[in-house]
Amino acid sequence: MGCRIVVLISGSGSNLQAVLDDLTGADAPAEVVAVISNKAEAYGLERARSAGIPTRTLDHRSFADRAAYDQALIEQIDTFAPDLVLLAGFMRILTANFVTHFHGRLLNIHPSLLPKYKGLQTHQRALDAGDAEAGASIHFVTEELDGGPLVLQGRVVIHPDDDADSLATRVQQQEHRLYPLVVRWFASGRLRLINGLASLDGAPIPSGGLRLETIESSM
Questions:
Q1: Per the residue annotation, which of 60, 101, 103, 110 is the catalytic one?
Q2: Is 93 annotated as a binding-site member?
């Protein structure tokens, strides 16, 4: 049996779809075994249902506090016995208990070139700063918001006429290339978190992460 993946979402699920599209075929090294959202209206749930994948909704507003929600979420995820948990637009700040429970098997994708612009409004912040480029990053999740060890980044040039929406569209195109590749690395045993460092094929990944452009040029 291949790597079992649970994906957490809050919205449209476009990165979920990119992963699902990549994992079609008998030779796929992983399978998405469940999709869980904190919002019942998240379109990503429909994407999962269309692919025949079990879905669950766990509304954070039904819980007294963040700790109670995260504990319930842990229990829900664990029923699917995942090897890997993907955050794909899951708009929740996770507690230390949650992060520790899934240590080494929890990945996130963030729409900036981390460590720049952690949190929200990433595209507008890059434009306001006059940056020459923007992009997306995949990292292992730690207790620090958007601060875990970097795995892979994809970059886009910022054009003079860009606004937040146009920049977001091009960054999202990079996201859809990044996540499936990293999922395959993890599913095949190449990517691991070792002694607090993201490692590919047993070698520590530089602190700034690998670059998608470099990886693709060598493929």
A1: 110
A2: yes
CATH 3.30.565.10 holds for 3-114+135-154+172-217: no
Does residue 110 have an active-site annotation? yes
Helix 164-187 and helix 14-22, axial crossing angle in degrees, nearest 10: 40
End-to-end distance of the chain based on CA atoms, in angstroms? Answer: 26
Query: Measured between alpha carbons, how far is residue 107 from residues 12, 39, 65, 129, 150 in Å?
Result: 18, 20, 24, 28, 10
Listed residue (71, 40, 75) closest to 56, CA to CA = 40
- 155 marked ligand binding residue: no
pLDDT band at 216 (very low <50, low <70, confident <90, very high): confident
1 pLDDT exceeds 70?
Answer: no
- 100-153 residue pLDDT tens: 999 999 999 999 999 999 999 999 999 999 999 999 999 999 988 888 999 999
What is the 8-class DSSP label of residue 93? P
Determine the average pLDDT of the residues in 39-43. 97
- pTM recorded for the entire structure: 0.96
Domain range annotation of the chain: 3-114+135-154+172-217
- Return d(Cα 86, Cα 140) in angstroms, integer: 10
